[in-house]
Amino acid sequence: MFQTRRTYENFLMIAEEFLEDTQPLVLTATTLLVPFHVDEREGGKYRSFYRRY
User: Which long-range contacts (CB under 8 A, 24 or more apart) does 13-22 make?
Assistant: First the structure.
């Protein structure tokens, strides 16, 4: 299961600490999916997560 709450808390901390004077506020993240190391079930979890946002 994804730990989205902790991820959001980390993003908030980074934004407040380093990006408060930056306009527009831009912060991105990526997920590395290595072929043959992520099965179809796990890939489906990533897809459903990203569709929500």
Answer: none
Give the angle subtended at the CA of 21 by the CAs of 15 and 24, to the nearest 5°. Answer: 80
pLDDT digits (tens, 9 = 90+) for 11-50: 888 888 887 777 777 777 777 777 787 788 888 887 887 7
How confident is residue 1, by pLDDT bands cut at 50, 70 and 90? very low
| Phi and psi at residue 15, to the nearest 5° | -60, -45
Phi, psi of 4 (to 5 degrees): -65, -35
- In the chain, the largest separation of any two C-alpha atoms, in whole Å, equals 42
Sign of CA dihedral 11, 9, 45, 37: positive
